[in-house]
Amino acid sequence: MTALSTEVPALKVERLRLARFTTLGVGGTSEVWTVHNHAQLAEAMRAPYRVLGGGSNLVVADEGVPERVIRLSGEFAQTDLTRDHALSGEEYVTGWVGGGVPLPGLLRKLQKLGLSNLEGTVGIPAQVGGAVWMNAGTRFGEMFDGLHTLEIVTPQGVRVVSPAELQWGYRQSGIPRGHIVTRVRLKLAPSTPQAVQDVMDQADMARKGQPKMRTPGCAFKNPGGIGAGKLIDDAGLKGYRVGNAMISHEHANFIVNLGGARAEDVQAILDHVRRTLNTPLELEYELWP
Ligand SMILES: Cc1cc2nc3c(=O)[nH]c(=O)nc-3n(C[C@H](O)[C@H](O)[C@H](O)COP(=O)(O)OP(=O)(O)OC[C@H]3O[C@@H](n4cnc5c(N)ncnc54)[C@H](O)[C@@H]3O)c2cc1C
Protein backbone atom coordinates (compact mmCIF):
# COMPACT_ATOMS: atom_id res chain seq x y z
CA MET A 1 0.00 0.00 0.00
CA THR A 2 1.37 3.46 -0.85
CA ALA A 3 1.45 5.89 2.04
CA LEU A 4 -0.41 9.13 1.45
CA SER A 5 2.02 12.01 1.01
CA THR A 6 1.72 14.69 3.68
CA GLU A 7 4.49 16.77 2.17
CA VAL A 8 3.77 20.50 2.15
CA PRO A 9 4.54 22.15 -1.21
CA ALA A 10 7.49 24.54 -1.02
CA LEU A 11 7.01 28.28 -0.73
CA LYS A 12 6.80 29.66 -4.26
CA VAL A 13 8.18 33.08 -5.15
CA GLU A 14 7.67 34.12 -8.76
CA ARG A 15 7.45 37.29 -10.82
CA LEU A 16 4.04 37.14 -12.43
CA ARG A 17 1.61 39.48 -14.15
CA LEU A 18 -1.19 40.21 -11.71
CA ALA A 19 -3.62 40.59 -14.63
CA ARG A 20 -4.14 36.83 -14.55
CA PHE A 21 -5.36 37.00 -10.95
CA THR A 22 -7.84 39.88 -11.28
CA THR A 23 -11.39 39.75 -12.63
CA LEU A 24 -10.66 42.92 -14.63
CA GLY A 25 -7.67 41.21 -16.25
CA VAL A 26 -5.38 44.17 -15.59
CA GLY A 27 -2.19 44.43 -13.51
CA GLY A 28 1.55 44.39 -14.11
CA THR A 29 4.33 42.08 -13.00
CA SER A 30 4.96 41.73 -9.26
CA GLU A 31 6.63 39.33 -6.85
CA VAL A 32 4.01 36.74 -5.98
CA TRP A 33 4.49 34.64 -2.85
CA THR A 34 2.29 31.56 -2.85
CA VAL A 35 2.12 30.23 0.70
CA HIS A 36 0.82 26.83 1.81
CA ASN A 37 1.04 26.91 5.61
CA HIS A 38 1.63 29.22 8.57
CA ALA A 39 5.43 28.94 8.51
CA GLN A 40 5.54 30.03 4.85
CA LEU A 41 3.06 32.82 5.52
CA ALA A 42 5.17 34.12 8.42
CA GLU A 43 8.20 34.14 6.09
CA ALA A 44 6.26 36.06 3.42
CA MET A 45 5.14 38.65 5.97
CA ARG A 46 8.71 39.59 6.96
CA ALA A 47 8.80 42.44 4.39
CA PRO A 48 6.10 44.83 3.11
CA TYR A 49 3.30 42.80 1.52
CA ARG A 50 -0.23 42.87 0.16
CA VAL A 51 -2.64 39.98 0.25
CA LEU A 52 -4.47 38.97 -2.90
CA GLY A 53 -7.80 37.19 -2.80
CA GLY A 54 -9.94 36.56 -5.84
CA GLY A 55 -8.80 39.89 -7.32
CA SER A 56 -12.44 40.86 -7.83
CA ASN A 57 -12.26 44.27 -6.20
CA LEU A 58 -8.93 45.49 -7.57
CA VAL A 59 -7.49 47.68 -10.27
CA VAL A 60 -3.76 46.91 -10.23
CA ALA A 61 -1.34 49.35 -11.86
CA ASP A 62 0.26 48.43 -15.18
CA GLU A 63 3.66 48.63 -13.42
CA GLY A 64 2.56 46.15 -10.75
CA VAL A 65 3.22 46.79 -7.06
CA PRO A 66 6.54 47.05 -5.20
CA GLU A 67 5.44 44.89 -2.24
CA ARG A 68 5.30 41.12 -2.00
CA VAL A 69 1.90 39.85 -3.14
CA ILE A 70 0.76 36.96 -0.94
CA ARG A 71 -1.55 34.26 -2.34
CA LEU A 72 -3.15 31.75 0.02
CA SER A 73 -2.86 28.14 -1.10
CA GLY A 74 -2.26 24.70 0.50
CA GLU A 75 -3.95 24.46 3.90
CA PHE A 76 -5.43 27.93 3.38
CA ALA A 77 -7.34 26.68 0.32
CA GLN A 78 -8.96 23.66 1.99
CA THR A 79 -12.58 23.21 2.96
CA ASP A 80 -13.73 21.10 5.91
CA LEU A 81 -17.51 21.26 6.12
CA THR A 82 -17.95 18.44 8.62
CA ARG A 83 -20.07 19.37 11.61
CA ASP A 84 -17.99 20.23 14.66
CA HIS A 85 -20.15 18.61 17.33
CA ALA A 86 -18.29 20.24 20.20
CA LEU A 87 -19.14 23.72 18.88
CA SER A 88 -22.52 23.03 17.27
CA GLY A 89 -25.81 23.52 19.06
CA GLU A 90 -28.91 24.05 16.95
CA GLU A 91 -26.62 25.75 14.50
CA TYR A 92 -24.21 23.77 12.37
CA VAL A 93 -20.61 24.85 12.98
CA THR A 94 -18.12 23.57 10.40
CA GLY A 95 -14.45 22.70 10.51
CA TRP A 96 -11.98 25.22 9.04
CA VAL A 97 -12.55 26.75 5.61
CA GLY A 98 -9.46 28.42 4.11
CA GLY A 99 -9.30 32.12 3.27
CA GLY A 100 -8.04 31.12 -0.18
CA VAL A 101 -11.13 29.04 -1.01
CA PRO A 102 -13.17 30.46 -3.92
CA LEU A 103 -16.54 31.60 -2.54
CA PRO A 104 -18.69 30.43 -5.52
CA GLY A 105 -17.54 26.79 -5.16
CA LEU A 106 -18.08 26.89 -1.40
CA LEU A 107 -21.65 28.16 -1.89
CA ARG A 108 -22.39 25.32 -4.34
CA LYS A 109 -21.29 22.79 -1.71
CA LEU A 110 -23.40 24.43 1.00
CA GLN A 111 -26.44 24.43 -1.30
CA LYS A 112 -26.07 20.70 -1.97
CA LEU A 113 -25.84 20.06 1.79
CA GLY A 114 -28.90 22.25 2.44
CA LEU A 115 -26.93 24.53 4.77
CA SER A 116 -28.18 28.10 4.96
CA ASN A 117 -26.86 31.58 5.97
CA LEU A 118 -24.44 32.42 3.16
CA GLU A 119 -26.58 31.88 0.05
CA GLY A 120 -27.30 35.63 -0.22
CA THR A 121 -23.67 36.16 -1.24
CA VAL A 122 -24.09 34.14 -4.43
CA GLY A 123 -22.61 35.77 -7.52
CA ILE A 124 -19.72 37.47 -5.68
CA PRO A 125 -16.53 36.25 -7.41
CA ALA A 126 -14.31 36.48 -4.31
CA GLN A 127 -12.23 34.19 -2.16
CA VAL A 128 -13.52 33.52 1.34
CA GLY A 129 -10.79 35.65 2.99
CA GLY A 130 -11.36 38.66 0.75
CA ALA A 131 -15.14 38.41 1.11
CA VAL A 132 -14.83 38.21 4.91
CA TRP A 133 -12.33 41.08 5.03
CA MET A 134 -14.87 43.48 3.54
CA ASN A 135 -18.02 41.65 4.66
CA ALA A 136 -19.12 41.31 1.05
CA GLY A 137 -22.81 40.83 0.49
CA THR A 138 -26.02 41.70 -1.25
CA ARG A 139 -29.45 42.67 0.01
CA PHE A 140 -30.04 38.93 0.46
CA GLY A 141 -27.24 38.45 2.96
CA GLU A 142 -23.59 39.05 3.82
CA MET A 143 -20.55 37.07 4.94
CA PHE A 144 -20.92 37.83 8.64
CA ASP A 145 -24.33 36.08 8.60
CA GLY A 146 -22.44 32.80 8.49
CA LEU A 147 -19.26 33.19 10.54
CA HIS A 148 -18.53 31.44 13.82
CA THR A 149 -14.77 31.97 14.26
CA LEU A 150 -12.04 33.71 12.29
CA GLU A 151 -8.33 32.99 12.27
CA ILE A 152 -6.41 36.18 11.52
CA VAL A 153 -2.66 36.35 10.98
CA THR A 154 -0.72 39.54 11.61
CA PRO A 155 3.04 40.14 11.63
CA GLN A 156 2.73 39.77 15.43
CA GLY A 157 1.16 36.32 15.32
CA VAL A 158 -2.06 34.34 14.96
CA ARG A 159 -5.38 35.37 16.60
CA VAL A 160 -8.58 33.37 16.72
CA VAL A 161 -11.57 35.64 17.25
CA SER A 162 -15.35 35.54 17.14
CA PRO A 163 -17.33 38.08 15.07
CA ALA A 164 -18.49 39.70 18.34
CA GLU A 165 -14.90 40.79 18.96
CA LEU A 166 -14.77 42.77 15.71
CA GLN A 167 -16.32 46.14 14.81
CA TRP A 168 -17.98 44.76 11.69
CA GLY A 169 -20.77 46.43 9.78
CA TYR A 170 -21.98 47.24 6.29
CA ARG A 171 -19.25 46.07 3.85
CA GLN A 172 -16.58 46.15 6.55
CA SER A 173 -15.19 43.59 8.94
CA GLY A 174 -13.24 45.91 11.24
CA ILE A 175 -10.12 43.84 10.44
CA PRO A 176 -7.21 46.23 9.75
CA ARG A 177 -5.69 46.20 6.27
CA GLY A 178 -2.79 43.76 6.08
CA HIS A 179 -4.21 41.45 8.74
CA ILE A 180 -4.82 38.23 6.86
CA VAL A 181 -7.97 36.12 7.20
CA THR A 182 -6.42 32.68 6.86
CA ARG A 183 -9.35 30.45 7.86
CA VAL A 184 -12.88 30.63 9.20
CA ARG A 185 -15.38 28.30 10.80
CA LEU A 186 -18.87 28.75 9.40
CA LYS A 187 -22.05 28.95 11.46
CA LEU A 188 -24.89 27.61 9.33
CA ALA A 189 -28.57 26.88 9.75
CA PRO A 190 -29.77 23.43 8.66
CA SER A 191 -32.23 23.94 5.79
CA THR A 192 -32.94 22.15 2.50
CA PRO A 193 -31.09 22.29 -0.84
CA GLN A 194 -34.28 23.66 -2.46
CA ALA A 195 -34.77 26.48 0.08
CA VAL A 196 -31.11 27.50 -0.25
CA GLN A 197 -31.39 27.38 -4.05
CA ASP A 198 -34.54 29.56 -3.99
CA VAL A 199 -32.66 32.41 -2.27
CA MET A 200 -29.74 31.96 -4.71
CA ASP A 201 -32.16 32.24 -7.62
CA GLN A 202 -33.57 35.51 -6.24
CA ALA A 203 -30.07 36.92 -5.69
CA ASP A 204 -29.12 35.86 -9.24
CA MET A 205 -32.24 37.54 -10.64
CA ALA A 206 -31.28 40.79 -8.90
CA ARG A 207 -27.95 40.65 -10.79
CA LYS A 208 -29.61 40.57 -14.20
CA GLY A 209 -28.41 43.60 -16.10
CA GLN A 210 -24.86 43.38 -14.79
CA PRO A 211 -22.29 42.93 -17.55
CA LYS A 212 -20.79 39.47 -18.07
CA MET A 213 -17.46 40.90 -19.28
CA ARG A 214 -14.22 41.30 -17.31
CA THR A 215 -14.76 43.92 -14.62
CA PRO A 216 -13.86 44.63 -10.99
CA GLY A 217 -17.55 45.11 -10.13
CA CYS A 218 -19.23 48.44 -9.34
CA ALA A 219 -16.93 51.43 -9.78
CA PHE A 220 -18.43 54.01 -7.41
CA LYS A 221 -20.34 54.01 -4.14
CA ASN A 222 -23.81 55.49 -4.38
CA PRO A 223 -23.54 59.12 -3.24
CA GLY A 224 -26.20 60.03 -0.66
CA GLY A 225 -28.60 57.27 -1.63
CA ILE A 226 -28.66 58.12 -5.37
CA GLY A 227 -27.51 55.31 -7.68
CA ALA A 228 -24.06 56.14 -9.08
CA GLY A 229 -25.02 54.13 -12.19
CA LYS A 230 -28.06 56.33 -12.78
CA LEU A 231 -25.99 59.53 -12.46
CA ILE A 232 -23.42 58.21 -14.96
CA ASP A 233 -26.15 57.02 -17.31
CA ASP A 234 -28.01 60.38 -17.10
CA ALA A 235 -24.75 62.12 -18.01
CA GLY A 236 -24.73 60.08 -21.25
CA LEU A 237 -21.53 58.25 -20.37
CA LYS A 238 -22.56 54.66 -21.19
CA GLY A 239 -20.15 53.39 -23.83
CA TYR A 240 -17.52 56.04 -22.97
CA ARG A 241 -14.22 54.42 -23.88
CA VAL A 242 -10.51 54.99 -23.25
CA GLY A 243 -8.21 52.47 -24.91
CA ASN A 244 -9.80 49.09 -24.33
CA ALA A 245 -11.68 50.00 -21.16
CA MET A 246 -15.28 51.15 -21.46
CA ILE A 247 -18.28 52.12 -19.35
CA SER A 248 -20.63 49.21 -19.85
CA HIS A 249 -23.70 49.69 -22.05
CA GLU A 250 -25.58 47.31 -19.72
CA HIS A 251 -24.89 49.10 -16.42
CA ALA A 252 -23.23 52.51 -16.20
CA ASN A 253 -21.51 51.83 -12.86
CA PHE A 254 -19.39 49.04 -14.39
CA ILE A 255 -16.16 49.59 -16.32
CA VAL A 256 -15.36 46.60 -18.51
CA ASN A 257 -12.21 45.34 -20.20
CA LEU A 258 -12.84 44.89 -23.92
CA GLY A 259 -9.56 42.94 -24.17
CA GLY A 260 -6.07 44.26 -23.43
CA ALA A 261 -7.25 47.22 -21.32
CA ARG A 262 -4.70 48.96 -19.11
CA ALA A 263 -5.06 50.29 -15.59
CA GLU A 264 -4.33 53.78 -16.90
CA ASP A 265 -7.34 53.50 -19.25
CA VAL A 266 -9.57 52.62 -16.29
CA GLN A 267 -8.10 55.48 -14.27
CA ALA A 268 -8.76 57.92 -17.14
CA ILE A 269 -12.42 56.82 -17.23
CA LEU A 270 -12.79 57.23 -13.47
CA ASP A 271 -11.31 60.76 -13.70
CA HIS A 272 -13.58 61.63 -16.63
CA VAL A 273 -16.70 60.50 -14.75
CA ARG A 274 -15.79 62.55 -11.69
CA ARG A 275 -15.03 65.63 -13.82
CA THR A 276 -18.24 65.28 -15.84
CA LEU A 277 -20.47 64.78 -12.81
CA ASN A 278 -18.45 67.32 -10.84
CA THR A 279 -18.79 65.10 -7.76
CA PRO A 280 -16.07 63.56 -5.59
CA LEU A 281 -17.47 60.05 -6.05
CA GLU A 282 -15.95 57.46 -3.72
CA LEU A 283 -14.50 54.33 -5.33
CA GLU A 284 -15.94 50.88 -4.61
CA TYR A 285 -12.78 49.08 -5.63
CA GLU A 286 -9.18 49.41 -4.60
CA LEU A 287 -6.39 50.81 -6.70
CA TRP A 288 -3.04 49.02 -6.25
CA PRO A 289 -0.61 50.54 -5.35
C1 LIG B 1 -18.93 40.92 -11.21
C2 LIG B 1 -18.69 41.36 -9.78
C3 LIG B 1 -19.77 41.43 -8.91
C4 LIG B 1 -19.57 41.83 -7.58
N1 LIG B 1 -20.64 41.86 -6.74
C5 LIG B 1 -20.47 42.20 -5.45
C6 LIG B 1 -21.57 42.20 -4.55
O1 LIG B 1 -22.70 41.91 -4.90
N2 LIG B 1 -21.34 42.52 -3.25
C7 LIG B 1 -20.08 42.84 -2.80
O2 LIG B 1 -19.93 43.10 -1.59
N3 LIG B 1 -19.03 42.86 -3.64
C8 LIG B 1 -19.19 42.54 -4.94
N4 LIG B 1 -18.12 42.56 -5.80
C9 LIG B 1 -16.81 43.03 -5.32
C10 LIG B 1 -15.87 41.91 -4.79
O3 LIG B 1 -16.27 40.66 -5.23
C11 LIG B 1 -15.83 41.95 -3.26
O4 LIG B 1 -15.31 43.19 -2.84
C12 LIG B 1 -14.98 40.83 -2.65
O5 LIG B 1 -15.11 40.86 -1.25
C13 LIG B 1 -13.49 40.92 -3.00
O6 LIG B 1 -12.89 39.73 -2.54
P1 LIG B 1 -11.59 39.14 -3.23
O7 LIG B 1 -11.26 37.86 -2.56
O8 LIG B 1 -11.72 39.10 -4.69
O9 LIG B 1 -10.53 40.23 -2.78
P2 LIG B 1 -9.45 41.02 -3.65
O10 LIG B 1 -10.14 41.78 -4.72
O11 LIG B 1 -8.36 40.11 -4.06
O12 LIG B 1 -8.90 42.04 -2.56
C14 LIG B 1 -9.72 43.07 -2.06
C15 LIG B 1 -9.18 43.51 -0.69
O13 LIG B 1 -9.31 42.41 0.21
C16 LIG B 1 -8.04 42.13 0.80
N5 LIG B 1 -7.97 40.67 1.01
C17 LIG B 1 -8.08 39.70 0.09
N6 LIG B 1 -7.96 38.50 0.65
C18 LIG B 1 -7.76 38.73 1.98
C19 LIG B 1 -7.55 37.88 3.11
N7 LIG B 1 -7.51 36.54 3.01
N8 LIG B 1 -7.39 38.47 4.33
C20 LIG B 1 -7.42 39.82 4.46
N9 LIG B 1 -7.59 40.67 3.42
C21 LIG B 1 -7.78 40.11 2.20
C22 LIG B 1 -7.02 42.59 -0.24
O14 LIG B 1 -5.76 42.82 0.33
C23 LIG B 1 -7.69 43.86 -0.73
O15 LIG B 1 -7.43 44.89 0.19
C24 LIG B 1 -18.28 42.17 -7.13
C25 LIG B 1 -17.19 42.09 -8.01
C26 LIG B 1 -17.38 41.69 -9.33
C27 LIG B 1 -16.21 41.59 -10.24
From TrEMBL:
Which EC number(s) does UniProt give? Answer: 1.3.1.98
Q: Identify the cofactor(s).
A: FAD
Protein family according to the UniProt entry: Belongs to the MurB family.
- Every copy of the FAD-binding PCMH-type domain together lies at 25-191
The cross-references to PANTHER family, in alphabetical order and at most eight, read:
UDP-N-ACETYLENOLPYRUVOYLGLUCOSAMINE REDUCTASE
What functional role does this protein have? Cell wall formation.
Q: What is this protein called?
A: UDP-N-acetylenolpyruvoylglucosamine reductase
Q: In which pathway does it act?
A: Cell wall biogenesis; peptidoglycan biosynthesis
> Which catalysed reactions does the entry list for this protein?
UDP-N-acetyl-alpha-D-muramate + NADP(+) = UDP-N-acetyl-3-O-(1-carboxyvinyl)-alpha-D-glucosamine + NADPH + H(+)
Q: Name one GO cellular component term.
A: cytosol
What InterPro entries does the record point to? FAD-bd_PCMH, FAD-bd_PCMH-like_sf, FAD-bd_PCMH_sub1, FAD-bd_PCMH_sub2, MurB, MurB_C, MurB_C_sf, Oxid_FAD_bind_N
- NCBIfam families, per this entry? PRK14651.1 (NF011245)
What is the predominant subcellular site recorded for this chain?
cytoplasm
The record's subcellular location field reads: Cytoplasm
Q: Does the keyword Ribosomal protein apply?
A: no
- The source's domain of life comes to Bacteria
Q: Which UniProt keywords apply?
A: Cell cycle, Cell division, Cell shape, Cell wall biogenesis/degradation, Cytoplasm, FAD, Flavoprotein, NADP, Oxidoreductase, Peptidoglycan synthesis
Output one GO MF annotation.
FAD binding
Pfam families reported for this sequence: FAD_binding_4 (PF01565), MurB_C (PF02873)
Single biological process term from Gene Ontology: cell division
Please list the residues that make up the active site: 171, 218 (proton donor)
